Amino acid sequence: MSKQFDVIVIGAGPGGYIAAIRAAQLGFNVACIDEWKNDKGGPAPGGTCTNVGCIPSKALLQSSENYEEAALHFADHGIGIKGLSIDVAKMIGRKDAVVKQNNDGILYLFKKNKIAFFHGRGSFVKAAEGGYEVAVTGTQNETLVGKQVVIATGSSARALPGVPFDEEVVLSNDGALRVGAVPKKLGLIGSGVIGLEMGSVWRRLGAEVTVLEALPTFLGAVDEQIAKEAKKAFDKQGLKIELGVKVGDIKATKKGVSVAYTNAKGEAQTLDVDKLIVSIGRVPNTTGLNAEAVGLKMGERGDIVVDDECRTNLPGVWAIGDVVRGPMLAHKAEEEGVAVAERIAGQHGHVDFNLVPWVIYTSPEIAWVGKTEQQLKADGVKYKAGTFPFLANGRARALGDTTGMVKFLADAATDEILGVHMVGPMASELIAEACVAMAFRASSEDIARICHAHPSLSEATKEAALAVDKRTLNF
């Protein structure tokens, strides 16, 4: 006999588990299905973000940053170290422990909120009386019926045509997080977030890293001035970035990978590396969902078609996160998960895509929210800009990290903040102030008039706001 639920959530990534929790908070009887397994075959909820994405990459970034600080910068503080070494196996073990803490935390939250968790793959069977029949296959084989179904199945790494991931020498984000020793030479195809973060990890630990990017510009989605500042920093660190390349044949053996490509000048080149990370985007993960069984409408790229409120073409079926339109970001999926649960309850859930922050956790960190300068120019919007360098910030000097700047873009007539862009220390944390300000439609003058603690990195945000009116105090 099938088990009955008010809401069934397929997928326990950031969007799915948050949707399940919010629905339970609102009084619904909720089930959540997820098939991710840990190395012992047990449940590992959290999706790509927790298992092979955001969380483990930040753990490795922190470890590698600590190593580089000790190797290159501790001496500036009068700290001497002899015999510095890196134990990669221990570093990977720490990363795995951090992942498990997050997996266990989600399972605890399910129990706390009385959510029924099913470990296996969820797929549609048919429309049923009062909702939809969903099969669970895997560790548990069950048949569930839900009045409402939320699809949160996430995304998978996109492979190069004819070059499958073996996760030994040709790596996706998954394999890049499990490299057992520092490669002598590491290649990356694509200069996206994952590529730059993983490239940074292994470069800090001693790998010679080369990034091949097809686009002629670096970080095309980032504000151009900020992207140029970031590239200067990466060049100085020794991260080799080649733009405007056309990748040709790729030959992989157990010993390494050979990449034939044409550079921006049209010259034939070959890159021989020990490992190759392919970071050319992600594709919606709908394999095995059995969408055709219920007539669920799919898009050309394998995504699920939804309206502005995440409704699919089927009554009572919703989709959120990487599997639908919009940025493939964990926090975007979380916001959609909350909004959908509230809409199911008859409330008015809301997500403003213009207020979704973006972060690249390299060193320096890159973060932004709202419009870039090139977008405002293309849209014909008249604006004012203000920038402030971390070089002139007292806390940044004390930290020993003065790379980068904060940049404000404000409406020329109303002074409303249209975008804030940062490259520099702790940009991932500093961007939150900009999100709050823009949510309340603040002006740059509002930020300029707010007292910020001294000395703090946040003073660079205040000074950049002052710079919109050309009245910085410390530069």
TrEMBL record:
InterPro entries listed in its UniProt record: Class-I_Pyr_Nuc-Dis_Oxidored, FAD/NAD-bd_sf, FAD/NAD-binding_dom, FAD/NAD-linked_Rdtase_dimer_sf, Lipoamide_DH, Pyr_nuc-diS_OxRdtase, Pyr_nucl-diS_OxRdtase_dimer
Location of the protein in the cell: Cytoplasm
Cofactor(s) it depends on: FAD
EC top class, as a word: oxidoreductase
Domain FAD/NAD(P)-binding: 5-337
Pfam families, sorted: Pyr_redox_2, Pyr_redox_dim
Cofactor details (free text): Binds 1 FAD per subunit.
Positions bound to FAD: K58, G122, T153, G154, S155, D322, M328, L329, A330, H331
GO molecular function, a single term: dihydrolipoyl dehydrogenase (NADH) activity
Keywords, ordered alphabetically: Cytoplasm, FAD, Flavoprotein, NAD, Nucleotide-binding, Oxidoreductase, Redox-active center
E.C. designation(s): 1.8.1.4
Catalytic activity, reaction form: N(6)-[(R)-dihydrolipoyl]-L-lysyl-[protein] + NAD(+) = N(6)-[(R)-lipoyl]-L-lysyl-[protein] + NADH + H(+)
Positions bound to NAD(+): G190, S191, G192, V193, I194, G195, L196, E197, E213, G281
GO biological process: 2-oxoglutarate metabolic process
Catalytic residues (UniProt): H454 (proton acceptor)
Disulfide bridge positions per record: C49-C54
Family: Belongs to the class-I pyridine nucleotide-disulfide oxidoreductase family.
Protein name: Dihydrolipoyl dehydrogenase
Source organism phylogeny: Bacteria, Pseudomonadati, Pseudomonadota, Betaproteobacteria, Burkholderiales
Gene that produces this protein: lpdA
